[in-house]
């Protein structure tokens, strides 16, 4: 199939999704560039459709040939209207994430990671990469956090999001009920906490919550969690991505996995 007009209704729907950082009405997520497409290809996410220019098809023909999905060739001008990056590589795909349940994110020996209104896609992407690197059980994005379909977030994860169980847009009341049922202790990363991460027992079944860049951990979770700090010299606090990465490394160190 070939599409040349940027005004095509199908392309307009994809453009709206890319611009808003949300999934399409069918629940598909747009991923852009050969690197993310390769990561998705070797994951449990399903590739629904590939959109590529003629030039992009020539450049990435080997990759396209490996994908068992509808391929739509679109004009360079139409692709430019879709692209979320400045230097487009002229290939993108619509994908469906693997479905995850609460049990997928709150089971096993790894630490569960909770993003409490973390809106910066770079910070959130760093957290996801560290979660995979240090053997976290899964990720829970609470209401107000960046959406997984956000293009900057997807690129910041460097493909880790394709391999991690996750839930998004979940409410805090439901989370607390699930944590009680799973018997997972909740720790909250807070700059002024008494206990440092190295003093906490992160070998036990637990979850770590990192709060928003502007407001920190929400009062509902703060009231139920034990606060942890990352010891620093001369700086008051670290950004969400760095703080959570250090905590996850410490948990992996205590468990003997690094």
Oligomer: single chain
Give the termini separation. Answer: 49 Å
Please report the number of helical segments. 11
Number of domains: 2
> Major sheet, described briefly?
7 strands, parallel
CATH architecture of the largest domain: 3-Layer(aba) Sandwich
List segments where confidence is low: pLDDT < 50 over at least 5 consecutive residues.
none
Q: How many E-type strands?
A: 12
By CATH, the topology of the largest domain is Alpha/beta knot
Helix content: 25-40%
Q: Within the largest sheet, what's the order of strands?
A: 8-7-6-11-9-12-10
- The structural class is alpha/beta
**Gyration radius, to the nearest Å?**
20 Å
> What is the arithmetic mean of pLDDT?
92
Description of the molecule:
With 258 residues, this protein is α/β, with parallel strands linked by helices. It has 2 domains: 95 residues, Ribosomal protein L30/S12 (60s Ribosomal Protein L30, Chain: A, 2-Layer Sandwich); 153 residues, SPOUT methyltransferase, trefoil knot domain (Alpha/beta knot, 3-Layer(aba) Sandwich), CATH 3.40.1280.10. 36% of the residues lie in helices and 22% in strands. The protein has 11 helices and 12 strands. It has a 7-stranded parallel beta sheet with strand order 8-7-6-11-9-12-10, with helices on both faces. Strands 1-4-3-5-2 form a 5-stranded mixed beta sheet, sandwiched between helices. Helix 8 links the parallel strand 7 and strand 8. Helix 7 packs parallel to helix 8 and helix 7 runs parallel beside helix 11. The radius of gyration is 20 Å and the shape is elongated. The chain starts with a strand and ends with a helix. The model has no long low-confidence stretch (mean pLDDT 92).
């Amino acid at each position: 199939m070939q599409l040349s007009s940027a005004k095509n209704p199908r392309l307009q729907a994809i453009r709206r999704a890319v611009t808003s950082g949300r999934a399409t009405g069918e629940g598909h997520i747009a991923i852009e560039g050969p690197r993310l497409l390769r990561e998705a290809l070797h994951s449990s996410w399903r590739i629904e459709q590939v959109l590529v220019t003629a030039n992009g098809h020539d450049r990435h023909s080997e990759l396209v040939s490996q994908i068992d999905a509808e391929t739509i060739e679109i004009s360079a001008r139409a692709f430019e209207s879709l692209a979320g990056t400045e230097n487009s590589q002229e290939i993108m795909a619509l994908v469906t994430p693997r479905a995850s349940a609460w049990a997928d994110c709150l089971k096993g020996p790894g630490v569960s990671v909770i993003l409490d209104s973390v809106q910066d896609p770079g910070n959130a992407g760093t957290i996801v990469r560290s979660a995979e690197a240090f053997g976290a059980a899964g990720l829970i994005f609470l209401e107000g956090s960046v959406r997984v379909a956000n293009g900057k977030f997807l690129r910041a994860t460097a493909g880790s999001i394709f391999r991690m169980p996750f839930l998004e847009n979940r409410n805090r009341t439901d989370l607390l009920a699930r944590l009680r049922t799973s018997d997972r202790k909740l720790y909250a990363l807070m700059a002024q906490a008494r206990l440092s991460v190295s003093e906490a027992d992160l070998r036990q079944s637990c979850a770590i919550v990192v709060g928003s860049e502007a407001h920190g951990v929400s009062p509902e979770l703060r009231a139920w969690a034990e606060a942890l700090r990352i010891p620093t010299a001369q700086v008051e606090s670290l950004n969400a991505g760095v703080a959570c990465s250090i905590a996850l490394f410490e948990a992996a160190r205590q468990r003997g996995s690094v």
